[in-house]
Amino acid sequence: FKGGKIQLAFYDGKTALGDFKKMNIGDVAKLNLPELEVSDHLPLEEGKIALITGGSNVGKIGTILEIRGQEKASQELISLEVEGETLQAPEEYVFVIGEKKPIISLPGD
Fold first, then answer.
1. How far, in whole angstroms, is CA 76 from its chain's centroid?
2. d(Cα 90, Cα 81) in Å, to the nearest integer?
3. CA triplet 42, 9, 106: central angle to 5 degrees?
4. Are 8 and 23 in contact (CB under 8 A)?
């Protein structure tokens, strides 16, 4: 885009235009509504707090321990520590929600 801007596309069809050069696939953008303004960026990386959004561990929150590629697979496998237990989930099921603690509130919190 003009001026080197980058367009982010969200799952619901919303888009945001801006300077997002530090964002990568798998990162999370905190979006303010209705302005469609990105107020925070959470990279998918070790040490971050994440929510598991699918599979047998859906709904669990933990700390990302390791992100590693899988041989013959198109996505990363992520290890998380959840209440003292190590769990694994494919990248598509891991949603970063904070640095050291969640920046969002979830039902039941």
1. 13
2. 14
3. 45
4. yes
As given in the structure block, the two tokens for residue 81 are 């520590």
Q: Model confidence at 30, in pLDDT bands (50, 70, 90)?
A: confident
Structure tokens at 56: 């047998």
Nearest one of 61, 59, 58, 64 to 26, comparing CA atoms: 64
pLDDT digits (tens, 9 = 90+) for 80-107: 999 999 999 999 999 999 999 888 776 6
Whether residue 109 contacts residue 87, with contact meaning beta carbons closer than 8 Å, is answered with no
- Select from 94, 16, 22 the least CA-distant residue to 59: 94
Contact 52, 80 (CB under 8 A): yes
| Local structure of 91: helix, strand or coil | helix
The pTM of this model reads: 0.81
The rounded distance, in Å, linking the Cα atoms of 36 and 30 is: 10
Asked if 41 and 27 touch (Cβ cutoff 8 Å), the reply is yes
